[in-house]
Amino acid sequence: MDELYRRHRSAVFCYALACCRDRHTAEDLTSEAFARTLRAVRSGGGPEAAWRPYLLTIVRRTAADWAGTARRTELSPDFEQWLANVPDTPEAESGEERILRLEENSLVLRAFRSLPERWQTVLWHTAVEEEPATKVGPLLGLGESGVSSLAYRAREGLREAYLAVYAEHASGTEECRRYSSLLGAAVRRTGRRANKDLDRHLAECERCRAALIELTDLNERLSSALPAGVLLWGGSAYVAARLAEAGASAGGMAVAPDGSVPLDGGTGWWAKAKDSPLPSGAVAGSVVAAIAIGVLVLPMPFGDDGKGPASSPPAHIGQPPITVFEQQPPVTLTATPSQAAAARHAVPSTTESKPAQPSPTGADLGAVKWSSRLRNAGISTVCLEPAGRSVVQNACDDSKDQVWETFSFKRDANYTWLRNAATGECIDYREGALVHGQADHIPIAMRPCRTDATGQLFRFDPWWGESDGSYLVRAELEDGKPWDEMQLGMLDWWADTPPEKDAPVVITYNYYNSARLRYLLDGK
What we know:
Blueprint: H1 2-19, H2 23-42, H3 51-66, H4 77-84, H5 95-105, H6 107-114, H7 117-128, H8 133-140, H9 144-169, H10 174-188, H11 196-204, H12 206-220, H13 222-231, H14 235-250, H15 269-273, H16 280-294, E1 322-324, E2 331-333, H17 339-345, E3 368-372, E4 374-376, E5 382-387, E6 390-395, E7 404-407, E8 419-420, E9 426-428, E10 441-443, E11 445-447, E12 458-462, E13 471-475, E14 487-490, E15 503-508, E16 519-521
Antiparallel strand pairs: 1-2, 3-7, 4-16, 5-6, 6-15, 7-8, 9-11, 10-15, 12-13, 14-15
């Protein structure tokens, strides 16, 4: 229990704090969660490997139990309201019974719990907590490559488990059961349905439509879909708090004994963004927006009426303000920060703008904001360069072929072209088709830069998982496009051996936070 407490206490407190009015009550809730877990273990219950999700579940159940006692006044008003608004609640049902019913109705939770505990563990710690393989490996007795391999199998297993649970859940409707087996294919065919009959069924059936959306999220946005489905309430707030804690620790920011961190100030977060190839204000604004979006209230699981989720889908940038709990008392941020807010968080640029240099291909992109090499964070001896129409990674050198330039895209300062200094062409992914395999990916090519920039935009998101100063070089975020939520990275990101000459680079998903899918700015 001492070891479990050391490993999981900070995470349990983060979630308990989201359920309570104050830190003192959160401390009590944390202690009670561990005490209940100890009792369960002594009686022959409890998990064998997946301790983190189990402990968080106990926190939620305990808080729901308190809602029916005098301690309800110590719970967060948001948690109380969420619990009170659970649909179809019988008058005599207790809070804990209500939670158990919600757990039964959550298809993601049922699918997750059906997996082997080692799969649950690797999924939670890599996808949700975004911990590196070096930290997850000791929990499972595996090396880094073993963690990546297990995580890949677990991710595939979760999709299959979800389809199995949904087929069982839809057993009352013959047509739903018939089409449930085709949902997996529909997700894999990004942007296309398996057949016209399935298309028609999805247009008529809200439940299957909701299942397809949820399955798509498991496939493409596991880091947000998994905590939403497993925790049921406060999952996004929990993830935001945990990533903030990890980022602060990695950046040298003070972390209190209770696991809390200051979300404004310190030297860790914004210092990491100072070398960003994007304008400093854009980096600051994108991080603020990411934190704001990260704590949206989660959608409810399926109700008993068969009409799908009870709440609306998560909001996107540009919708009304949302509340972010940074420190007590809470403050409110809008999902799209104002210019004044971005300016307050901005950090000085380390690279002065160069005179405008029109591309040899004719598109005038404006002044160069940053110019240097992109070095692979997982294999620091290789850098990005063009090879004819392809984009590859080879041994770093001092050639102009490995020099890349960024610019200020006027319509959205968070994005930029990636133009090669030698060829004058830009990395382009607009015409690439999604390829399925060990890593779903979209081929990229070097093409003339376009002023409209569609299919040529990238944003640099600072990576908070380790203190290596690396970035996720992400493609344009655009719902319905095959590149939505994808990023630049090595095609063979899972390999244990050094890359061969001209190792291909593609647009792919951020599988398991592999370091080979991140980049350092000229080794910084």
